[in-house]
């Protein structure tokens, strides 16, 4: 079962951080963990953990190992392991992962597809 991320992120353990002052449109690609605090649109390809801070505004197609959302997300998010939408987030997206947790459904609008686990224990 995938690991659920803590709601407080230790920034010292993140490989790459894009700060609040960043406004970027295009493709972001990394094999390492990534924390987004700014405004990003386009495509995000993250081979490890992707974190969206409360300040983040993301309108993108997102692929990552695990995704933790505390900010704004629009578009499509696909995770190899899990997606966690924490309370206070604003999500209008299609989410796809083997494990999806949505803490605050009032701010979620979109679709959820659980994938990759056809066995029932």
Strand-helix topology:
Elements: E1 16-18, E2 23-30, E3 34-36, E4 39-52, E5 57-69, E6 72-85, E7 90-97, E8 99-102, E9 108-114
Parallel strand pairs: 1-3, 2-4, 3-4, 4-5, 5-6, 6-7, 6-8, 7-9
Helix content range: under 10%
Q: What form results from the Cα inertia axes? A: globular
Quaternary form: single chain
Q: What ranges have pLDDT less than 50 throughout 5 or more consecutive residues?
A: 1-6
Cα distance, first to last residue?
12 Å
Radius of gyration, rounded? 13 Å
In what range is the share of β-strand residues? over 45%
Strand segment tally: 9
Q: Determine the mean pLDDT.
A: 88
Class computed from helices, strands and strand pairing: mainly beta
The biggest sheet amounts to:
9 strands, parallel
Alpha plus pi helix count: 0
Describe the structure.
- Strands 1, 2, 3, 4, 5, 6, 7, 8 and 9 form a 9-stranded parallel β-sheet that branches.
- Mean pLDDT is 88; it is low at 1-6.
- The chain has strands spanning 16-18, 23-30, 34-36, 39-52, 57-69, 72-85, 90-97, 99-102, 108-114.
- The relative contact order is 0.16.
- It starts with 15 loop residues before the first strand and ends in a 7-residue tail after the last strand.
- With 121 residues, it is mostly beta strands.
């Amino acid at each position: 079962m995938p690991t659920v991320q803590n709601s407080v992120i230790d920034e010292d353990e993140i490989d790459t951080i894009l700060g609040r002052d960043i406004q970027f449109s295009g493709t972001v690609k990394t094999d390492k963990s990534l924390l987004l605090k700014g405004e990003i649109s386009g495509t995000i390809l993250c081979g490890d953990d992707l974190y969206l801070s409360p300040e983040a505004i993301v309108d993108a197609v997102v692929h990552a190992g695990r995704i933790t959302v505390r900010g704004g997300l629009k578009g499509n998010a696909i995770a190899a392991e899990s997606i966690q939408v924490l309370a206070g987030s604003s999500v209008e997206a299609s989410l796809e992962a083997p494990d999806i947790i949505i803490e605050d459904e009032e701010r979620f609008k979109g679709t959820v597809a659980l994938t990759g686990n056809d066995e029932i224990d």
